[in-house]
């Protein structure tokens, strides 16, 4: 028996430091991950949502109703206002994800104020995001100018459109499909080519007539099916355990999911052509996963983030897929209403596929 | 194309060079590999055998010089080279988690073979390489010799006119090695050209012609018989008691006209400068001061002697 040797331990430690120094990616991430995450958490994530987009239907159009609208706006909860013609148009705008809340002021607004029995107006809220619901409720008791009139039950009647019972599973599970896939799908393909390189299969493969595009497409096909299996599994579990409704068309949902699945798979392929070993591929997967998780609108409301963070988030497939999945599953939106989020996924897929295919060389240079 | 160029060399290189950073792995290699023969690359590890093969397969871009493989310029159209050759990598590179049959089917599909033609060809190869009984076995569970046979079957699926084999037998027992070479001779009878790298002398001796590489340079080439008969040194075999060989070796290496000494068990081969007209007397005179008893005779050079002679500069460099 040798006992414990400090010298040997130190030799191991020194060797590990040398590995780290030679593995530039890992070394970079030692500083990179804390910096990126601190900046993202600190600046971008804002649970105190302001500046929601809203639509207004003012059928009264009196001085009092206009004052109510401008007060609502002055509260900073509302950032921009568009006017609509009917409550149904507001609902449609919310389904499309163009606005997060709507103010409906009925024609008999002045009479309601005078009687002070029924709510003066209605607030329609996109509660597929619980943070929006919480923020918008802040308007509920908005006092009426100029005489600070308040009704005991609140100025507005609240209409939470999609999850009136406020069950958190209904908020979380649809988005979870996207989050889970953005991890599993990317991991599958991120290791796909690196693994062949590590095991020595790649040298043979690149000596055959196979083209880079054939290789890339062939690599993702099986995982598209696996992606559909995972998505179905999550929805089934949601329905079975949490009574999650699927309000829109399942066909629409599966078509839209296809765009998301191939876009995250090609993201993984690109990582696979960039990484030199499986460990690096896994690290890179997490580097791409965490910002998506934080900025996509899954954990924190999209509208609460500063502009720059929103622009960045628009690049992520998860951001678009969350809007799609919440739109179809909770808001009963149709595919045609969601084109604004479908084409970015298609574009992301095309760009990543091109980058991965171009980056992949059939040589050992 | 293959038929017309049958008389042309299968491979032709001109000052072929490959650098990795400051290291020159292959340095100005010029050689010709005649069609329909087995050509050997003999050299120690790091002599540039694998790098040369990879350049000829279109996997590495040459840093300088030119190479033509089956009439195709490897710089201009590496993909055309890849379609027409077979390549057996040094490390087993088929899929260990697929069965023998699955691996072969996969490669047939990758090479775009028709399903029925592929089935026929696979059946022929399974029989030829004695793999019929293990079609359902995972490649990872095969023995070294079986793996090599599978790799060879896979490399020849699409009937390439030219086959590159990078140290194909380095992980194989002697029995399997002999068997493997029988397969190679069968294929050369069918008209296939083969380039085989090795560090085994007995394998090099089986080649129709060979090139000895050392530190990226071509140091000798020709048929094994040529190389042995034209060796620019006399070989004196020294038979001595095992205990004496080390001292004998040291005594000889110190002498100016001994190029090098190779040990074969209890025998030593001293490579003597041919300027010495009586090599035995010369060696005797060197041994006298040590007082060691030894039997001396002049023998025909073998390939080991050729190899030692060709890579000789090491002794002089070490001495300097």
How does this structure look, described?
The complex is a heterodimer of chains A (365) and B (320). Chain A is of the alpha/beta class. Chain A folds into two domains: 52-160, Rossmann fold, CATH 3.40.50; 168-359, no CATH class. In chain A, 62% of the residues lie in helices and 8% in strands. Chain A is built from 15 helices and five strands. Chain A has helices spanning 6-22, 24-44, 63-74, 87-95, 109-115, 130-136, 168-190, 192-199, 201-205, 212-242, 250-274, 278-295, 307-315, 317-330, 339-359; strands spanning 52-58, 78-83, 101-105, 121-125, 156-160. In chain A, helix 6 (130-136) links the parallel strand 4 (121-125) and strand 5. In chain A, helix 7 (168-190) runs antiparallel to helix 12 (278-295) and helix 7 (168-190) packs antiparallel against helix 14. The longest helix of chain A is centred in the middle third of the chain and has 31 residues, at 212-242. The radius of gyration of chain A is 26 Å and the shape is elongated. Chain B has a six-stranded mixed beta sheet, sandwiched between helices. Chain B folds into two domains: 11-228, Rossmann fold (3-Layer(aba) Sandwich); 232-300, Alpha-Beta Plaits, CATH 3.30.70. In chain B, helix 3 (100-110) packs across helix 4. Chain B has 320 residues and is α/β, with parallel strands linked by helices. Helix content of chain B is 35%, strand content 27%. Chain A binds chain B through residues 199-210, 362-365, and chain B through 54, 57-61, 78-79, 82-83, 85, 87, 89, 91-96, 107, 110-112.
Main attributes of the structure:
heterodimer; A: 365 residues; alpha/beta; Rossmann fold; 5-stranded mixed beta sheet; 5 strands; B: 320 residues; Alpha-Beta Plaits; 6-stranded mixed beta sheet; 4-stranded antiparallel beta sheet; 35% helix; 27% strand; disordered N terminus
